[in-house]
Write a structure and sequence with these properties.
By secondary structure, the chain is mainly alpha-helical. A two-stranded antiparallel sheet has the order 1-2. The longest helix has 66 residues. It starts with a helix and ends in a 35-residue tail after the last strand.
Length: 150
Amino acid sequence: MKKVKREMLTMKTLEDLISKAKGAVDVIGEKAGQFASVSKLNLKVMDAKTQLKHELETLGKIVYENFGGDIQDSAEVATQVQTIKELYAKIESLKSQIAFMKNKILCKSCGNQNEAGSLFCAKCGENLKEEGMPIVEEADEDDDFTEFED
């Protein structure tokens, strides 16, 4: 009887261990998925910055070759400037997505990533609470991802 009881207890312990291991694997899988998503967004930011650099160089060449020191209104320059503005907006959007995935708040003034629930930027002191926006409570989990730097 004791042997049967001991075997049942061993089976229960083994089942508990397997259940906990499955839970740990699920958490690791979720973290790996988040890391992969953040990494993909970081690559998109780098691609957009590369494209931005190219567009800025192209604009500089257009201005230099066509206008020298006498810049006048030009559709070509306006088109290039619009492309550059769109790239800046794309980069900011990607950075915001990264911050959201990492449960952070981006400062609109300096771009610093702040902890969720922060009222002011830790870097520049700018007010982070926008008019009408609720304050986001801080998550219990630690951030396992490193911040993307330029």
